[in-house]
Amino acid sequence: MAARPILMFMFACAAITASAGAYASPRSDPTTGRSVFTGAATPHASSITLNPAALGIGTIDEVYLSLASVVDSYSVDRRVQDPATGTLTAGDSVGQTELGLGGMLGVVLHPGTRYAVSFELRTPPPEIFPGPKDALRYHTLGGRQRDYIASIGSTIKITSKVYFGASLSHDNTFLEMKYARDTAVADGDGPRGIGSDCGGMPCGFEHPAATEIYDVNARSGWVATANLKVNIGLLVNVYRDVWIGVAYHTPPGFNIQTQLDGDMDVTRAPRDGGEILEGGSTVYVSYPASVDVEVRARLPRMLDLHVGGRWEDLSRFQAYDVRGHDSTFVPNGIPEWTLRPRGMHDSFALWGGVEQIDFGQQLRFGGRVGFETSYLDRSRTSAMTIGPASLTLDLGGQLRLGGSWSVELAYGVQYFPAVDVESSAYNPQFQLDCIASGYDYSTRACQAVRDGYAIPTAAGEYGHLQHAMRLGFRYDIN
Q1: pTM (predicted TM-score)
Q2: Which of 143, 363, 457, 469 has its CA at a distance of 20 to 30 angstroms from the CA of residue 282?
């Protein structure tokens, strides 16, 4: 008889994992917040950074260990641009699946009836850039952004209905980017431009002989105040078993920009000899702030209603500002400054669902559905960033193993409809027109050059799907 609940749990988990996948906008973690058993009004270990105020209504000291994975699948049917007429024709079709792994170790303690303290070590699944695919080379040839986060939090019970919490995080960011530059487009109609020789014919747009490859690896300082982030939360009991949690998360260092330093290798175009130039790099990026909200209310039949949402200030995240440092770069025509666009705007997500209340039973389940607005205009879509409006589904189960141990499995799917980009914000003609204007930066073409959009078109059809799963183990200390 004891084996029956375990078999039921394993069967439910297998049914869940046979579904499609989940996708989150950059910097957010799809396994917390909208995921089952988590939220800004829920006393789960993930609330150490999600909303530390929510830990105040918990009573059990615990150690929590989780493993997270993200399987990211995409497809791109590219269109290429004719330099003479500007017309678009069908290009290569590309598909790829990437796996990103993460994990968390958290400790939550209640030294008194009014206080809670917490500690966390966490690395969310990284954002993985597609690649290496030659058809996408001017937008991405691969890379990832990985964060390693250490946090400490504190919660206080202000009144019987109001809890306040705050946590301080030290966030180390590691960024890898690889991409190509069209050196013929960069010179416009000049002697090394689109009309110059590439293997016995004019280079035009996207000729392999004029393609220069950049490999950038940069990171934040090991220990620095610029890495600090603050999570501030409030939890209020508004009516009987109805709780509202709100939390605000600052960007790293409270600054307009984050600075990442490292190395940059440049492989010169085949027509220029193909040698590798090594130098330094500095990348400036404006990461977003965010707000999480959740309403949790008791329902009949021992169920909890969870309605949550998230706002992310992604309009700050317009581009990676890449600077190259080396005495050999300028003489070889390597730009000292390049913008790698992301072009995002603010996004809003809303989800809701029901979960069984945890009263010590051996099995409990829950599920949520949601909607997220787009965080990218259709025209700015590229292989680097795909973000139309989407639908989400999250399911999960918890099994109490006996004694102080329990295990939980959560799985989510976020479905993005295909995006057909006919009028792309990326256009190499902007570079030619800007040069022809004498670099008049009041023109649209030169503004596009400054913003990084004067590169080969990203026109085409984009599909995106991502699986996200969290496997968590909890040990109750008391």
Answers
A1: 0.90
A2: 457
